[in-house]
Fold each of these.
Amino acid sequence: MFLQTDDQTIDDLRLFSKRDTAGIFDLYNNTHTRGGELLLQEMFRMPLADKQAINRRSSIIGHFCQFNTLFPFEGSTFDMAEKYLTNRNEQSNHGMQQTLSEKDIQNGVTAVIALMQQAKQFIEDSSIRNIAAYEEERGLMESLLADPVFVPVLSEKSKGKIAYAAITAFDVLLRVRERQKVERLLSYIYTLDVYISVAKVAAKRTFIFPKALERGTGELSIEGLYHPELQHPVPNDIAMNKNRTVVFLTGANMAGKSTFLRSVGTAVYIAHMGFPVAATSMEFSVMDGMYTTINLPDNLGIGASHFYAEVLRVKKVAAELKSGKSVFVIFDELFRGTNVKDAHEATVAITLAFAERKNSRFIISSHIVEAADELAKNPSIGFWFLPTKMKSNIPEYTYTLEEGVTNDRHGMIIIRNEGILEILKSGRRRAV
């Protein structure tokens, strides 16, 4: 079972790099193999939606983190093995016969033998045997390596030069007859590569391993939450449950609302992958889907304005809710693309409708603080804000959540501090 999401959410959370900007994926990617990197990308696009699967993966990575487990294979060995195995002596697209040189075959056979022997040594280590959550995957590797056809492979002296006749026999065994089994072993090793890569990140950055709770409980409790890419983050706590299904977030421009929303969204998303997150503790109810709207572009391809793009986004979420799914939803500045009156009415109507969906959770930020008066009548809606402290005429931001609603509006102060009006006035005088 996988968490349902979409490209908008993946873009909002900046999971993958764009142009010269690194993504969250890059932060977790310390893989040693190309196959491991591709698998990690797949995991990022397909978070889990099963409590047991999430907690099992989290437990495996947690143990590797605790024991500082090292990846027991050389990257160069993998390169040779993959080059060797990807060549089947078949016709190319141009009709040319693709063949390996004797040296390529010798290097490839030697590399695969080394990988298989190292894999056997790794899974027989007592510290690996004692990881209960990893037992299923370890058992699959053990069963595969115990196949009688691989006895000669595992018996081959690792440091000795393999005779030409033996190379030929091993080539037929590994690249032809038992190729699928060898490739299956590689897939297990790629998974191991991902686990150890992520474990290193957890250890280096002191990330914690969230605990997944049963679907339907609607619990979300995060302490010491921060965005993993920040150099000097300010941690915050967040709690949602069956009594608080919606959070209405307010704050002035630049107070940190979008960063906080990305922090929450990233933590919830990464937690569903079974990966460690940037916080001091976290428990969460498994959800069916997650959808965010933080940086929604105009859909010029269908002639849609920003407001209409927002409407379509809300419609998509409504369809997911109608189907009975439990979803985690973030809207940053809901209905910013229309006039204040329509935005006010729409924000109140949609937020109240969301509040009735007891098995889903919603965080909505807004500049329309007047909406809070009507929303406060619903006990399922909680109110937080990010304050601004004025020092003389200079706004200072704490980035620390407080309960309630703020009326902070400092747009004109910032405009005046930047001297924009003076620039425009002086420019007009020169024009005369």
Amino acid sequence: MAYLAFDEIAGGTVLDRAATPVADPIVAPVTPLAAPRLSALEWSVVALAERDRLSTLRTPGRMAIAIALLFGDRPNPQLADPRLEALRRIAVLSWHHGYTIPSAEVRAFHAAGFTPDQYELVVDSIGRGRAAANARRFQR
């Protein structure tokens, strides 16, 4: 039997194969992600959306405009910032329908720059708020 010293050929030392971790090319390393967050302004939009009706999500038609001209203009709850308006729309739908939100609204929410984790944070937070409001309502 012959012995070949590879460390002499390579000009370095032989590393112990058991001691060196081999990276699996299929499995990517797991990096801890930051918890999803919303700013104070975004949370205030979510809180204010609790009082908005579903009708605020639709653009006013001719009849609504005529009635507004006759009886006085109602303040428009739609927000000028498209990102905050997408958040308000998701919050209004969540306050009224819970977790059943149209997929087009969810796609618009993500297109506005929010992450799926932020979507879950908003909807879960509103779900807890709805549950607390229902519990208070039944205690009376």
